[in-house]
Amino acid sequence: MGDMYAHRLECLRCGRLWTVAESGVRGVHESECPRCGYLGWAETTELTETTRRLLREHPPEVRSHRYAA
Question: CB neighbours (10 Å) of residue 23?
């Protein structure tokens, strides 16, 4: 069996934190937020407070309308 790695993720929609174990069977890229179901996340170490604030101020619904052609 392969090595397993734990990833600490943060939802880019609601900010929920959760841990996902990555293995050969199910990768971290398939993980959706357990709170809101959004499939947009980043590892907590990759986000700054400025980025978090911008994401809270501009949720996905607003972002999609703002940049739609």
Answer: 13
Half-sphere exposure (Cβ direction) of 62: Cα atoms closer than 13 Å: 7
Q: Do 14 and 33 form a contact (C-beta atoms < 8 A)? A: yes
Q: In whole angstroms, give the CA distance from residue 46 to residue 65.
A: 26
Sheet holding 5-11, edge to edge: 17-22, 5-11, 41-43
Cβ atoms of 13 and 47 within 8 Å: the answer is: no
Which pTM does this prediction carry?
A: 0.70
Per-residue pLDDT of 39-61, as tens digits, reads 888 999 999 999 999 988 888 87
Instruction: Break the chain into its structural domains and give their ranges.
Output: 5-66
* Dihedral sign (CA 23, 26, 28, 29): positive
Q: How far apart are CA 7 and CA 10, in angstroms?
A: 10
